[in-house]
Design a protein that fits this description.
Layout: E1 2-7, H1 10-20, E2 27-32, E3 42-43, H2 51-61, E4 65-68, H3 71-75, H4 78-83, E5 89-90, H5 98-101, H6 103-113, E6 120-123, H7 126-136, E7 140-144, E8 153-156, H8 159-167, E9 172-175, E10 182-189, E11 194-196, E12 201-202, E13 205-207, E14 211-214, E15 219-222, H9 231-249, E16 256-265, E17 268-275, H10 282-289, H11 294-302, E18 318-325, E19 352-356, E20 359-361, E21 368-370, E22 374-382, H12 385-397, H13 412-416
Parallel strand pairs: 1-2, 1-4, 2-3, 4-5
Antiparallel strand pairs: 6-9, 7-8, 7-9, 10-11, 10-16, 12-15, 13-14, 15-18, 16-17, 18-22, 19-22, 20-21
Helix pairs in contact: 1-10, 6-9, 7-8
Amino acid sequence: MKVLVIGGGAREHALCRALSLDPEVTSLHCAPGNAGIAQVAQVHAVDQMDGRAVADLAVELGAEFVVVGPEAPLVAGVADAVRERGIPVFGPSGEAAQLEGSKAFAKDVMAAANVPTARSYVCTTAEEVAEALDAFGAPYVVKDDGLAAGKGVVVTDDLQVAKDHAAGCDRVVIEEFLDGPEVSLFAVTDGTTVVPLQPAQDFKRVGDGDAGPNTGGMGAYSPLPWADPKLVEEVQETVLQPTVDELRRRGTPFSGLLYAGLAITSRGVRVIEFNARFGDPETQVVLARLKTPLCGLLYAAATGHLADFPELRWRDGAAVTVVVASEGYPASPRSGDPIGGLAEAETEDGTAYVLHAGTRLAEDGETVLSAGGRVLSVTAMGKDLTEARARAYDSVAKITLQGSHHRSDIAAKAAAGE
Ligand code: AMP
């Protein structure tokens, strides 16, 4: 099968890598891709936000299947534009992607489907904001209603900071604070059948010990040795299936990847947010462990045949990914610096490898340059988390990028409790 992947981050590199390992995939293309993706797929300089250009490329290539990675093209209806040309797509319609595109819409769906989540108010005026903040008390949670690339949420004890964030947004969702560890659970769905993947945990703050500002994610690991073995089953029954059923009932069936961001609170599991695509960097560890060839699974979802799909198979052991970020990330990331040690960081047996996020090839066609805040996602497998994280950090140590930084505590607590 000839497959086209849309996007150009480490998530798309992980998707391309897994697809390239699937014997069913005979030809792999990606737009726009990055320097790492170019090693496993043919890359095309097409604007991922331009539905028409993406659909034209798919037709021109004779692509038989398109996988859309990031949220922004999905919310902009890029999957619809490709589907209109009769090509199967993994990724929801623009309407169904509102589950991620609008926090207020997601809250409405959850209320209708009886899905456990934080109590919340949708506010548009300063008076409503003040009332809602007062009703819940500190810590305050203020969310921009629209897509904000992970920067729309402020959690703070400072009332003024909460009010200032709300004042900078058109419409906000203000909600009760949820305590307890967070879990990311992905599910592949065709709009009716839901197939959950294995849970992962990511690290959002920039510094060790969860210090500093929020980022797109600084690392992840899977599985979660501390989690209740019944967690996936419970979330399937109380969150994933009811949400998919509710969206179908509304006439906007959701097919693609449903990502539930969960808090395991003292009062039970609560949904923090939904995303309409694979999460980054959790995808890097979840796909590292997935033994079932990826293309067949995604294609079954895109064509409505998940009910007949065989049970997923998983590799034993654990996976850890550590994000290497550029100097100044997240506030003002620096780009254009050469990256060294990429080949040395990979092991011959494939237990450690480097996924590219923000990279590009220099004019010489060889030197890899940084091109963004999150630059690399160094991923490793092991018999357990302790071994996987040791391998990941060995690899990180071999990479040179001036001024770069990474967290040194990814999966440390979970490994200590193994
Ligand atoms: P979101 O974009 O909704 O995932 O929010 C980003 C991050 O903000 C989450 O991963 C949580 O760490 C935090 N967060 C969001 N909502 C809440 C909440 N109700 N209570 C506590 N933390 C939250």
